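Late entry, evening session. Most of the bench is empty. Finally got around to the prediction I had been postponing all week. Sequence below, unchanged from the version circulated by S.P.
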Amino acid sequence: MLNYLKKYVNYGIAYAKLEITDSVSNMIGAGVFGILAGVCGLMILFMGSIAAAYLLSDLLETPGTGFLIVMVFYVLLFVVFILFRKKIKLLFTNNVVEAAMEAMDDPESENYEN
């Protein structure tokens, strides 16, 4: 009887390790995807900003004014991010914690897409 109890405990430990490994691997996969999507988004934003600056320069018929306008837009965006940094940080923190809890709490409803 004691031998069966030891096997049961060992199987429970092995199952817990597998669940943790599954949850961590899902979070790492989501993180890598987020990084790749972020890099692609930044490249699109960069190229779009250059195109907008050239377009504004052509419309205003001055070579540097379009770049100045785009730069002022990004400076204002930066100021807004600085002013709301706590709310933005809290939003991202809540999303990460929620995703981690969902990955650990509901292993039966995960989509295993390959």
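Two things to note before I forget:
The chain has a mean pLDDT of 87.
Residues 97 and 103 are 10 Å apart (CA to CA).
Will write this up properly tomorrow.
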